[in-house]
Structures are given as structure tokens and as C-alpha cells.
Amino acid sequence: MKNKVIAVVTNLVICTVIVATAVVGLYSGNAVTVSDNSDNVYYSSAQSKNSVSLMFNVYQNTEIVYGILDTLDEYGAKATFFIGGSWADDNVDCVREIFERGHEVASHGYFHKDHSTMDYDENFMEIEPSVRLINMICGTEISLFAPPSGAYNDYTVNACVSLGLKVIMWSRDTIDWRDSDTDLIISRATNNLQAGEFVLMHPTESTFKALPSILNYIRNTQLEAVTVSQCIGE
To answer: What is the pLDDT of residues 2-50, one digit of tens each?
Structure first.
């Protein structure tokens, strides 16, 4: 009973912070201008010599997320999870477990909006609460943001610079949110996979089934699955 009370209180505190953030804004000053916005947007890593990054955009399917974590552990692989704030708010324990198992946690916005249609303030206010929430849950400072559907504009990039975030895209997309063919997902993720690539996935049942084959391919081609920050930093 004590643990349940603590969990309820924790969630209430987190919800209070997010609501306060949305109302007050927690923002002052002018937008940061980036001289070349492309410098803060990454589709892959030119630095990587022998690693790739598996990226999971998460807004649903909590039980599958746990299964993906188990599979990654089995293969000694690390990944980056771009987490939606509205999902994180309801799945605090899962978010914390992702982080505690040694994976990278990052922002996927709060309500899965189209950032390419937003001005600077709108981008900032959609991203910042998710960053604050994930940092609070995990006791860390995240450094990456992946725009939903890959949709962003200069305001998005500038808002991310203000928040100390890199904007992360992908070099290959499994399109697993639409296609449930496991063999197709494996092919899209692995066909001629090169060091430095970012592979986009979601916690779907088909991706969960495809993941062992994807990780076997990575292992058999002498590549290593690491977090995006590790891949960029090599």
C-alpha cells in the first residue's frame, strides 16, 4: 500500500509540473538563431566506424516496450527511445526502466504534433514539457529530440538549440507503424546496413518479432547497436 501511495504522489507531482509548465511557459528571452540549421540536424553519423543506432519512437504499447527491452538485453544491444510526454506521464515506471537498463531516453514531443506548422513559441512549448518530465523521471538531462513524422522547420531547430537538444532524423525507416510484414521490416532495417546509420522503429508487435533477426544481422556483420549519442560521439 505504501508503494502505491508513493507512486500516486509521484505521478501527481509530475502532472502538476507539466500543467504548470504549459500554463506559465517557463520561457523568457528571444529565440536562439542558428547560422546553419542543418548543423544541428542528424540523419546519420559520419563519425561512426562500426556502430549503428536503433531508435524507437514511443507513444503506445507499453507491454511491447518491455519485451523490446528484454530482447535488447539478450543481445547486449543498446538503443535510443524517443518518448512522447503524454505516454511517459502514464508510464513512469517503464520510462525509468528504459533508462536504468542503460538505454538512452530522449524527447518525441508531448502530444505528437506537427512541428513543421508551428512557430518558435509553439515548438518550444510542445518540446520543453516533455524534456522536463523525462529528466524528472530519470534524474538525467536528455540531449536529443525526434520530431513526430520527421516534420520540423527552422523554428523547431532553434527551439531545440535553446533547450540544448540535437534534432534527430533517420537514414532508414522500417515504416512498421503501417506495415506489419515482419520480413519487410527486417529487410528495411538491415539491407546493406552501414556503420553510422539510424534505424527508425516503433514498439509494434511485428517489430518485436523482427528484432532478434535485426540484431543477429548487426552482430553477424561486425556492427554494434549503440545509442544515438554514442554513435554521434564516436
So the answer is: 444 444 444 544 544 444 444 333 333 334 434 345 689 999 999 899 9
Q: Distance between CA 182 and CA 71 in Å, rounded?
A: 16
What is the length of the chain?
A: 234
This prediction's pTM:
0.86
Residue identified by cell 529528466 is: 135
- By three-state DSSP, how is residue 71 classified? helix
Whole-angstrom distance, CA of residue 50 vs CA of residue 221: 9
As separate numbers, helices (DSSP H) first and strands (DSSP E) second, the chain gives: 9, 9
- pLDDT, tens digit, for every residue of 156-174? 999 999 999 999 999 999 9
Residue 223 near residue 50, CB atoms below 8 Å: yes
Cα–chain center distance at 157:
16
Of the candidates 7, 33, 15, the one whose C-alpha atom is nearest the C-alpha of residue 162 is 33
Q: In the predicted model, what is the mean pLDDT of the chain?
A: 88
Q: Which long-range contacts (CB under 8 A, 24 or more apart) does 186-195 make?
A: 186/210, 186/213, 186/214, 186/217, 189/214, 189/217, 190/214, 190/217, 190/218, 193/52, 193/217, 193/218, 193/221, 193/223, 194/52, 195/48, 195/49, 195/50, 195/51, 195/52, 195/223
